[in-house]
Amino acid sequence: MRMTSSPPCFACRPLLGVACALLAFSPAWAEDADDAALQLADSATPTVEQASNLKAFGEAAYGNDRLRDGSLRHNRRLSLDLQYEHAFAPDWRGVFADRLDMNWPAQAGRQRGINIIKEAYVSWQAKSELMVDAGRINARNGVATGYSPTDYFRDNAVRSQVSIDPASLKVNRQGSVMLRGQTLWDGGSATAIYSPKLGDMPHNGDFNPDFGATNHQDRWLIAASQKVSDNLRPQLLLYKEANLPVQLGFNLTGLLNDATVAYVEWSGGRSPSLLARALQRQGLAYADDSRYRNRLSTGLTFTTSNKLSVTAEWQYNGGSEDRAGWDSLRRAPLPVYGLYRSALQVAQESPTRQRLFLYGAWQDALLNHLDLSAMSYYDMQDYSRLSWLEARYHWERNEVAVQWQRYSGQARSDFGATELEGGWQLLLRRYF
Amino acid sequence: MKPYCKLLLLCALAGMAALAQAAPSPQEILAASDLVRNPDYPFGLTNTIIEYRGGKQADSSTLATYSKADPNGGQFRSLIRYISPARDAGKLILFAGKDLWFYDPSSKASIRMSPQQRLLGQASNGDVITVNFAKDYQATSAVEEDTADGDRKTQHCYKLVLSASTPDATYHHIDMWIETANSHPVKARFYSESGKMLKSAYYRRYQQQLGADRPTETVIIDGLDPNWVTVMRFSDWLKRDVPEAWLQRDYLPRFKPE
Predict the structure, then answer these.
(1) Integer Cα distance of A23 and A15 in angstroms
(2) pLDDT tens-digit profile of B154-181?
């Protein structure tokens, strides 16, 4: 045996006897275990899967809603979801993503069937660092988990809400028709988007492409990011929509330690209150209350060594009603209150200034392939609450999930105003 | 001293000096084994992972991996794309030191991850990405000894003791056996700061890939539960240019494999 470094220290000779006894036992045990594992690996016949252009799944859901009047509502749903990409020429590719939901009974104000063309666009890679896209695109900005103030293209994007899980709301939404260009450089990128007005009002027809939902006004956006250190890469955004001054946006994430990510997402600019916008859109008179308003979402995600991640997020919406305004609005005539709530629901904005959001996801919880998720919104102004739980078990191509939700709070509070008090649903999903 | 004695002594000293110079340092041995596992240029491969629990297959996934060394530090950055299972197909993970991002094409969401977040079963992030150990660890000793390789054949190896030397290192320290004759990594044992053995890895099924004899399979055995075994098999090795601009969060929605 030849040493190429200094010999080991033998200063602790009294401990050597015990250590040697342990070491004499452990390597043999380890070698036996290794032999068994290697024999198992010898028999492995991995199948190298090939990448597919198509990703599709079908889903069936059955659930019960408990309404505030004490009655029960049975829900059934069948869904088909697909994404397809195809490179039809060098540097050119087409993208199509579609979802069809069939609901029994139909969702409020909707047909039984709702087809969403989520994306349909062509992409041209002019150079390795320059890309241009045209068509319906789901453009999403933001780093927050629950409320994303810089996710400017979310307005009216959810045509069919099949779950209140933020992950579902991000997936099941309709893109906007736009022209998008992006250039990248070492450590940074810049994106420019122009999205024209193509319709005035949303359409509820089963297979209507519904340009009026996500292209009801002219909009543009410029976003740029630059790496400033190994840990920090801020993103700045400028956003403009018709009848609204330019809004500024900012996104930043940072690693606090090996287990914790912190994030902050902010948007600010001069704008009327959401109440004024909701009422003015309906042609109702309301004084112009435009002023500089901030929207902010900031939080931490902590991950344990056993795959449990917990996110705590504070959400501030300067366009919504403060405590006094909200108390007043809750006592206002029902049509006014209803207009405000429905307008904010489609815009995916909170009706009050401040919320707390908690989200937990535990991968392979208790047993392999079982994922547990939990979510809670807490309104800091009226103390109402929304809770949601999910247990999801998955096989190679199949999944089964149970979801439970509960809305609690006083009448006309943030989460106490829904006709729904709570409910559950069972989902079966099959990937093709 | 007689002249021929002086000559003998000089020859002996010169011989010892030559031997001492020929003997590579532990860090050089480690760097040489890195070059066996990974080429020194950007490349791509397919990583097929099978996870066994209690002797039965519990999970499998296929990943496409694209790697390029950082021109500054020398450590690899990796872009990993899920090919299977179907539920994860198309998802991307970017590993650039501790700048980790997960991208889901369904939600268009790019999510910053902490190094502790694991997305691939037992295989930790550090196992799946391309790693130059010599960039993150300092080899403090090299002892020659015989050890059993992944095919249970005896190989004459250097046993290196590696200590984490950068914050990006996944493990506190590692014992690694490297063949003396050809720098082939044979096996490694990975430890936590408390000295607990977290896992063992065997590097085997050597084949000619990208101009060198490289291990095309890694067998990972859990340190606490030896019935928990992960087999990673590498195929479709390809030299591939990876522009610097691609190795950032904003490129993830754009990434398309060729």
Answers:
(1) 12
(2) 999 999 999 999 887 888 999 999 999 9
Q: B11 phi and psi, to 5 degrees?
A: -60, -45
Determine contact, residues A343/A321, Cβ cutoff 8 Å: no
Candidates A34, A85, A302, partner chain B, best to mutate (most B CBs within 10 A): A34
| Partner residue facing B142 (CB), from A5, A49, A307 | A5
B21 within some domain: no
CATH of domain A60-431: 2.40.160.100
Is residue B141 in a domain? yes
- The CATH number that applies at residue B212 is 2.50.20.10
Question: pTM of the prediction?
Answer: 0.87
- How far apart CA A176 and CA A156 sit, in angstroms, is 10
A405 vs A432: CA distance, rounded Å: 29
What is the complex's ipTM, to 2 decimals?
0.85
What is the sign of the dihedral through the CA atoms of B192, B194, B200 and B206? positive
Is A34's CB within 8 Å of B200's CB?
yes
| Distance in Å, alpha carbon of B230 to nearest chain A alpha carbon | 8
- Strands A176-185 and A92-104: what pairing? unpaired
| Alpha carbons A381 and A192: distance in angstroms, whole number | 37
Q: Is residue B139 part of a domain?
A: yes
CB B96 within 8 A of CB B73: no
Domain of residue B69, residue span = 26-254
Q: Are B82 and B106 in contact (CB under 8 A)?
A: no
Q: What is the pLDDT of residues A147-174, one digit of tens each?
A: 999 999 999 888 888 888 888 888 889 9
Does B180 reside within a domain? Answer: yes
- Residue B233's closest chain A neighbor by CA? A46
3-class SS at A129? coil
User: How many structural domains is chain B composed of?
Assistant: 1
